[in-house]
Amino acid sequence: MLGNKTVAIIGGGPSGLVSCKSALESRLIPTVFEKNSDIGGVWSLSNGKVWDSLKTNLSVNTMMFSDYPWESDWYYGSGDFPTHLEMTAYLERYVEHFKLKGHIKFGCNVTSVHQESNGLKWIVEYSTTSTIAEKNREPVTQKQTFDCIIVAGGMFQKQRSIELVDKEKFTGEITSSGDYRNQTAFLGKSVLVVGDCNSGCEIAAELAENTVIKVTQVIKKIPWVLDKYLTKPSSNENPLVFPVEVAFFSREGSDFAKKNFKSEQQSFIDMNEWLSNVCSKQQTHKSLHKPMPSDVTPFIVISQNYTDCVINEKITVVQHPIAKIQGKTVEFANGESREIDHILCANGYSYELPYLSEEILKDLDYNPNNKKIPIILHKSTFHPTLQNIGFVGWFLPAMFPIIELQARWLSLVFSENLEPPTKEQIVEGLKEERAILASPFQKQYPHVEMVDMGDEIATIIGVMPDLEKIKSEDPHLYKLIYNNAFSTSSYRLTGPHSNQQLAKSILNNINNKYYCKNK
Ligand SMILES: Cc1cc2nc3c(=O)[nH]c(=O)nc-3n(C[C@H](O)[C@H](O)[C@H](O)COP(=O)(O)OP(=O)(O)OC[C@H]3O[C@@H](n4cnc5c(N)ncnc54)[C@H](O)[C@@H]3O)c2cc1C
């Protein structure tokens, strides 16, 4: 049977939206269940996880889907990094352009996903939340049956609870980064930010910009703090300036790494060495200095102002855990103490899948405390015991190019336009995930290699351009897709649902923007 199968998609964030679009492309009949009253997930206007001043930490070249490029006036004045409002507007335009709205059920919280007793279909139970229910009406529980399921509910639903010594003895306020919107509630206060990842550093820097806020930050490890732009030498006299991930990700770079890094450990040593040069400014300050050589996992934060805030003593960084709290006095393990009015916890999210049964969670090896890989899947998408159900966006970092490939893969398989992976392939994939977890040299994000992961899935689903053929037949196009920065649009050059003309125009625009402008 080709097409016409029904698919329930849990979540109307980027993963759910691209799943809906891909399902329509493959002639499936999608229904997106979104518990909020609007689309966007992390980027939702009604219930997002972002703060007022947040700009994306990856550029428009990565924060896009393959056949829907950003127009320059959609992020006017934001450099290459759109504001969260511009990001939401991009997603709203995407919904409009691909006519997705009619397939989304808003205010519908999926509470259970289970198979019919004969194992043929899936039942989705959901309750309509008060956002769309009439006033004072109790949420109504409903059921709907589907052929297939795409789990795209996102990993950032619930803030991870934090264990603070003497938490109950603290007489100030404690909040989480997910609740942070702007400086207003912190004016005139002494704030302790707990956390060393992107949110912790970015929020600490934003608070520290205001002279009436005193900021202390307690960290476990010192990050490498990259600016949003990187400068690379070029053959002509002007160096080329790239958004950081544009400089990092290319097929040429990925091949170079594979050839030259003899082992994971050696790659960490080389990477740390390179980062210590790129981040030479932070190496001058005692609080951010990292000794070299180092084979410790390179741990990166992208922030434009953080390093300067620390160097200019606007943020006091403490690398010792909290040992004692009494009233508003917080004492650290090195014996130093500070008076604190407000503790802001930026310790990340705990990864929740409350709508899946205990049995399914067991199959998935679900471990919400595992900060790297909370569920074990083949290429973060398939599981051998679960038929007609797949995952999109359940890996770190859930970058747009990869979630789109997952969505296209599932849609092609569910619509029977592509063979599903065999049990052996899936089991092999699970083994790879377990090996990542067991390795003593774990990357900050286990699936950060966007080019490798992208090309692997693209090859499976038949959208990987033939590099050798293109090299001999069209050297210009080869430069665009091999030497230049990685672009998700290279996956629209060939295969199912390709759009070669659009893909080439996007790739040429990237070339003109970053590789020709200084000539
Ligand atoms: C503060 C912050 C900043 C970030 N910045 C960047 C960035 O700059 N660049 C980048 O690439 N990534 C960034 N990310 C990662 C971000 O998660 C992705 O950009 C993207 O939002 C992932 O999309 P998603 O659809 O998988 O998840 P989400 O965006 O979380 O969307 C999931 C959706 O599913 C819905 N949902 C969940 N459970 C249910 C249920 N039971 N029933 C119905 N609906 C449900 C939610 O309401 C939500 O709308 C950031 C994340 C955070 C928290």
UniProtKB/TrEMBL annotation:
The keyword Acetylation does not apply. Pfam families: FMO-like (PF00743). InterPro entries: FAD/NAD-bd_sf, Flavin_mOase, Flavin_mOase-like, FMO-like. GO terms for molecular function: flavin adenine dinucleotide binding; N,N-dimethylaniline monooxygenase activity; NADP binding. Keywords: FAD, Flavoprotein, NADP, Oxidoreductase. Belongs to the FMO family. This is Flavin-containing monooxygenase. It comes from Heterostelium pallidum (strain ATCC 26659 / Pp 5 / PN500) (Cellular slime mold). The lineage of its organism: Eukaryota, Amoebozoa, Evosea, Eumycetozoa, Dictyostelia.
